[in-house]
## 1
Amino acid sequence: MLNTEDIGAVIFSSTPDLNAAFPAAGARKFGWTQVPLFGTQEIECPDAPALCVRVLILWNTDLRQRDIKNVYLHGAASLRQDS
Ligand SMILES: O=C(O)C(=O)C[C@]1(C(=O)O)C=C[C@@H](O)C=C1
């Protein structure tokens, strides 16, 4: 379970085709009002999925990296076939 108090910061990247709203603004509406949030733009890489938001959560945990499951939804699953 992810406790908001354990989140150091969250970084969002959006593909250049997404510009209607800031992902960080959505996260605040969702309840992350005290979490430091930052947005950036992903590079336009040929064959990479369009309309894609990546979310990197910097989370204080005692878990080992190999015990954390990164989640890739829909077409984004093709980005990391090794995970
Ligand atoms: O994990 C992703 O979302 C990817 O697109 C893969 C990958 C990578 O090669 O590790 C590539 C680009 C992103 O900026 C981050 C990670």
## 2
Amino acid sequence: MPSRRCIGDKLIVAIDVNREFYEIGKPVIRKAQVEHKINFIESEAIPALDKLLEDPNNEGSFDYVFVDADKINYLNYHEKVMKLVKVNGIIVYDNTLWYGSVVKSEDSVPETLKEGRSSVLKFNKSLASDSRVKIFMAPLGDGLTICMRVC
Ligand SMILES: C[S@@+](CC[C@H](N)C(=O)[O-])C[C@H]1O[C@@H](n2cnc3c(N)ncnc32)[C@H](O)[C@@H]1O
């Protein structure tokens, strides 16, 4: 679950419970010469986000956050990330179509997708009624929901 401050001379904070996934990207990061800008935190996302929020300077300071982790926690991530991102900042959530299953009846969805489908459906409904954000669903890949924090 990487979250990013702006590019340029600013910092990128990247969180993942498994360092291996960060290591996969390392060759590209090195090639782009941005390794020194990335603060990688190997941790469950919730405690890592809570730690970031302990510092009042982090509140409302992030330009952009990208969330791509366990879907069951998307609503929890949203509440924390909303405190970190600035007003007019952008949060992007990946996999919000969940293999297209969100528009299918539950009976027609394979067992392996059901838990994720249920979490993503709850998340999508909650975002749709969240007056703190404007949302746009980009039907690319597995679905990207782009949110702008408006207040
Ligand atoms: C589909 S991968 C995406 C990796 C990366 N965002 C990318 O785009 O290449 C999902 C990632 O979420 C991480 N993840 C899953 N549950 C997590 C949690 N509770 N806290 C932090 N990271 C988690 C996994 O380790 C995995 O790297």
